[in-house]
Amino acid sequence: MPLALLALAIGAFGIGTTEFVIMGLLPDVAADFQVSIPTAGFLVTGYALGVVLGAPLMTILGTRVTRKRMLMLLMGLFIVGNVVSALAPVFGVMLAGRVIASLAHGAFFGIGSVVAADLVAPEKKAGAIAMMFTGLTVANVVGVPLGTFIGQSLGWRVTFFVVAGLGVLGLLGVAKLVPEQPKPQGVRIRHELAAFRNVQVLLAMAMTVLGFGGVFAAITYITPMMTETAGFAASSVTWLLVLFGLGMVGGNLLGGKFADRHLMPMLYVALGALAVVLALFTLTAHNKIAAAVTIVLIGALGFATVPPLQKRVLDQAAGAPTLASAVNIGAFNLGNALSAWLGGLVIAAGFGYTAPNWVGAVLAASALVLAVLSGALERRTVTAGRPAAAQAAESAAAVGPGESVPTASAPISR
Predict the structure, then answer these.
(1) What is the per-residue pLDDT for 358?
(2) What is the recorded membrane topology of this protein (predicted)?
């Protein structure tokens, strides 16, 4: 494994911790600022929208410097945002800090995906991308539960100071391990934007929004759901997040392994199963053991879609992958924002803390529909684009020996 992948995973670990740790601290933050749980949910929505906006903006700015230097600048921005959140005197300032940190998120993973894919052979690209994203998934096994425990024990502000420290480690890792690369040459905004005229790129990004949104519809409000509905103690949320993280790690690695060989079938299975599991979560959330198992499955199935979706965007936007890759990271977080907002709406409407699970199931099912449509369009394109010689060969195989086959060069006898 190239050491550069380890460096990218270190940065991803810090970013993943700050993205997800807010789930376990949402009630504490809401109580400290004296706002409702749905209002505190804007810390998730605001972060996600910041990623959506920051991904293309920071990536475009990054074309002016080397990829290594840009990754280091992004980690610096991430550190500043988390310090602002930790010191925030009012809710609005904390929200601003979350947005500042989020601006680094999409570009880091987008540029990092391109770097990771370029470090390995073509048949190992999805696996390399998955290796980078392992940092994000491991953050949910170690960083997020530990951050939640620290926040519940010492205060949530301490957690964000610790997360800023993780950003420093990520910065040092990139500086030490990522090799120097030349500044991207010949990168033109018009050329990069051309990738978005490809319907398959747009479909992959829509699948990203809806599929990953299904995961966050449930996970954003996991703390009140598990304490109020399942009957877990607040301290148990830490271990539930560990289970979610373990599912993420396993799903991410499996998704990377199979996406290099069976990309679309992997998406069909993962998205279909995710929709079913999220729908069942409305029932299993009332039982501690069943709820814990379901949380593992949501993490595994949700993150099994990450490497194949990211690789599909890179494949379909092969001529201009950098911006498309970063925007797809933004699409993951647009799904987070959408689902967090929708989940807050159904809770505020009085449908209970399990209602976001239905929202997630519908989103995941919608992503599956788009995946089937994308696969059908691809098959039709391949069939329509076959050379005439190939079609003639198939026709020859279909007729018996001694029979003549019309060709493009000979007129058909009448």
Answers:
(1) 94
(2) Multi-pass membrane protein
CA–CA separation, 203 and 205 (whole Å): 5
> What pLDDT sits at residue 106?
80
List the structure tokens of 123.
């048949």
pLDDT of residue 408: 38
What is the token pair recorded at 326?
């970063």
- Give backbone dihedrals phi and psi of 293, rounded to 5 degrees, phi first: -65, -40
* Closest to 275 in 3D by CA, of 366, 141, 189, 203: 366
Q: What is residue 378's three-state secondary structure?
A: helix
Domain 3-179+191-385 has CATH 2.40.340.10: no
For 335-354, b/e burial (b = at least 16 CB within 10 A) is: bbbbbbbbbbebbeeeebbb
Q: What is the 3-state secondary structure (H, E, C) of 45-112?
A: HHHHHHHHHHHHHHHHHHCCCCHHHHHHHHHHHHHHHHHHHHHCCCHHHHHHHHHHHHHHHHHHHHHH
* Segments in the chain below pLDDT 50: 388-414
Sequence-distant (6+) residues with CB within 8 A of 343 are 41, 216, 217, 218, 220, 221, 355, 356, 359, 360
pLDDT tens sequence across 194-226: 667 788 888 988 999 999 889 988 888 888 899
pTM tops 0.85, yes or no: no
Q: What was the pLDDT predicted at 298?
A: 95
CB of 22 closer than 8 Å to CB of 29: yes
Question: Which of 28, 94, 40 shows the shortest CA–CA distance to 237?
Answer: 28
CB 163 within 8 A of CB 82: yes
* 376 sits in which H/E element: helix 355-384
Q: SS3 of 190, please?
A: helix
Question: Which whole-number Å values give the CA distances from 221 to 13, 245, 275, 276, 354, in the listed order?
Answer: 22, 16, 18, 19, 9
Return the pLDDT at 189: 65
Sequence-distant (6+) residues with CB within 8 A of 192 are 60, 320, 322, 323, 324
Task: Please list, in sequence order, all residues whose beta carbon lies within 8 angstroms of the beta carbon of residue 193, skipping any fewer than 6 positions away.
Answer: 320, 323
